[in-house]
Amino acid sequence: ESKVVARMSARDVVVLLSQTMQDVAEKKTTLRHAMAVSRLAVALAKVIEVADLQDRVELLERVIGERRKNK
Q1: 8 closest CA partner among 59, 46, 58
Q2: Maximum alpha-carbon separation in the chain
Q3: In whole angstroms, what is the distance from residue 24 CA to residue 54 CA?
Q4: Residue of 47, 18, 45 whose CA lies nearest to 34
Q5: Backbone angles phi, psi at 6, to 5 degrees
Q6: What single-letter DSSP state applies at residue 8?
Q7: Three-state secondary-structure class, residue 9
Q8: What torsion, rounded to 10 degrees, do the Cα atoms 4, 6, 10, 12 define?
Q9: How does pLDDT run across 10-64, given as a tens digit for each residue?
């Protein structure tokens, strides 16, 4: 069974990276683990940026479409 993870924001990625750095400093996790989290966070940040841009484009298309209908 597959679960959908809640959509993360750029702020969530910052918090994740900050917490991971803190965990490394406190020796709660390994540098290897932190590097894996970092690589995933970079990929996630790119996905978030694309999703945000897609949302904006869809909103603009809706607004333009509505304005054309009302003319």
Answers
A1: 46
A2: 64
A3: 35
A4: 18
A5: -60, 145
A6: P
A7: coil
A8: -120
A9: 899 999 999 999 999 999 999 999 999 999 999 999 999 999 999 999 999 999 9
The stretches of the chain forming alpha helices (DSSP H) are: 10-25, 31-69
What would you report as the CA-atom Rg of the chain, rounded to the nearest whole angstrom? 18
Query: In this model, does residue 4 exceed pLDDT 70?
Result: no
Placement of tokens 């924001």 in the chain: 9
Best CA proximity match to 40, nearest among 16, 61, 63: 16
Which residues, 6 or more positions from 36, have their beta carbon under 8 angstroms from its beta carbon?
Answer: none
pLDDT of res. 71: 80
The model's pTM is 0.70
The secondary structure of 43-61, three-state, reads HHHHHHHHHHHHHHHHHHH
